[in-house]
Design a protein that fits this description.
By secondary structure, this protein is an alpha+beta fold. It contains three helices and seven strands; from the N terminus they run βααββββββα.
């Protein structure tokens, strides 16, 4: 059974130029180092990565296997990231799109994320709880990006 889809979006301002932001966001080794609750990571190709995470959410225990791939790469302007997650009785598929524009001497990044599919036990979890967990993860991810760029938190 698939639950209703959820969408997230926003924009972030960075002091770094678009090329530096793009390079960081499409560097899978850097991405792996920024994934919360990471247990292990392995590059499986130029644009793909497999990870194991142990999420700290009350409604999602145990480990999950992630397959992350980058597509539609247009340096230094845009990229698409696709994530497939599998755990015991849980499955998810997500897509995120990034668009980067110059903003003064820095960059403005527009992003969207969409939970394309959720299967298994997670479909019985309150959408508000899933949304809150996603928002927490998104905030953490942007904090990590800022830290890797050497910028202060927004």
């Amino acid at each position: 059974m698939t639950s209703s889809l959820q969408e997230f979006s926003g924009q972030e301002l960075f002091q770094a130029d678009p090329r530096r932001v793009y390079d960081l966001l499409t560097d899978l080794d850097s991405l792996a180092a920024s994934i919360p609750d990471l247990v292990s990571a392995e590059r499986t190709g130029e644009h793909s990565l497999k990870c194991v995470v142990r999420p700290g959410f009350s409604f999602l225990r145990g480990t999950m296997k992630l397959a992350i791939s980058l597509a539609d790469l247009v340096p230094p302007k845009s990229a698409t990231m696709q994530v497939s997650a599998q755990g015991i009785g849980v499955g998810m598929r997500l897509t995120s799109n990034l668009a980067i524009e110059p903003e003064g001497t820095g960059s403005r990044l527009f992003w969207t994320g969409r939970i394309e599919e959720m299967t298994g036990l997670i479909t019985s979890v309150s959408p508000a709880l899933v949304s809150a967990a996603a928002q927490r993860t998104i905030r953490h991810a942007w904090q990590q990006v800022r830290q890797r760029l050497g910028e202060a938190a927004a």
